[in-house]
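Ticket #4471: structure output looks truncated?

Reporter: J.K.
Steps to reproduce: submitted the chain below (437 residues) through the standard prediction queue, then opened the result file.
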Amino acid sequence: MREATYDVVAIGGGPAGMAAALAAKEAGAERVLIIERDRELGGILQQCIHNGFGLTRFNEELTGPAYADRYIKMVGAAGVDAWLDCTVLAAEPGGAITCVGPSTGLTTVKAKAVVHSMGCRERTRGAIRIPGTRPAGVFTAGAAQRMVNMEGYLPGRDVVIVGSGDIGLIMARRLTLEGARVRAVFEIMPYSNGLTRNIVQCLQDFDIPLYLSHSVVAVHGHDRVTGVTVAEVDADLRVRPGTEFDMACDCVLLSIGLIPENELGKAIGIQSDRVTGGAVVDQYRQTSVPGFFAAGNVLHVHDLVDLVSEESAAAGQSAAQFARGLLPDSARQRPVSAGPGLRSVVPQRLSPAAPGRFSASFYFRASRPMGPSILTLRGDDGAVIWNRKLSKGVKPSEMIVAQIPYARFARAEALEFALAPDEAAEAELKSKREAKL
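Returned output as attached by the reporter:
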């Protein structure tokens, strides 16, 4: 068996793995490796041929492959090694990684620090248990995206999309441009689960109807999909009797959410968050197993790749510091929790501050859509120690990011964030609307 030694190893060569590896190299790690099971670096970006990437990272609008190409060139110029077409079989405590590939054979890599950057997989029909037959023509939106953009095949010509996740919305536009007819998008929640810009650019601009509070309750067809039955749902997501109707189609795309690819972490006992589906981490993105870090969609699902790169760069820097023995001991940690109005917060723990770091970045998901809101941070005594107004409102599909100085919460033994409507701002908006009328 072949053996190799590295300071930092990133498992997964998508935007998270490349950003982490580049940052680790820049932070002083001498030997850095990316292990990628696909034939090229870039991950999901290679099939995302639409624009909208890089607006904050590179201050210009790029396509997915162009964004990936920027990072591929940067990691190459930095001297980061990349093993392609190589699958990690196990990553054990202590940094022993077992992988296999045509060019590497069966190899054991000894790493001082490991960054999990494996991304997500899509939820399938089985995850939401749609009744009906099992004909050909039912795809996840991401599989259809790869089929169209990279393989050159059209999955269907009369399409229904279940769920309003961003990939589904983007595929509604893509299929329309390829000549298919997208009949409708059905979302079980009373609000969209995609970015506002995708609702506008992918549905409204192409007159594709979006049915909120609707669910597909049956799929029809024997050899090939012939149609679906749709029904309205109530506030408890139960079907309203008598609201069912049929819609003919030859293809059903599922855009019903993503699941962090965490099997490697679970195998070694990394603590996971039941809400995000990813690991429980501190502000350095270090997991419950020392020396193992997580970043990107394997940690929690992001809506913008720019945020993935930002967070992963912080994880890579931390991994390099750990490899060099410069990261503070994480034995003493303070809990961070998501309170009223919030569905999740990352990180879920706070370790002592590292030298040269004066603030921590927090990522949130709102539990429901709100207008103008206030994000607050309370200490263990219940007193508000920090707040920020979100005048544009919030949506569960759009991540909230806050960078808070350590000095603001230095004395708190536990932290709780909460999100609530800004009643004063809402009243002001209401009075302005009434004045216009």
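Triage note (M.O.): checked the attachment and the full token line is present. The first strand starts at residue 2 and ends at 11.
Status: closed, working as intended.
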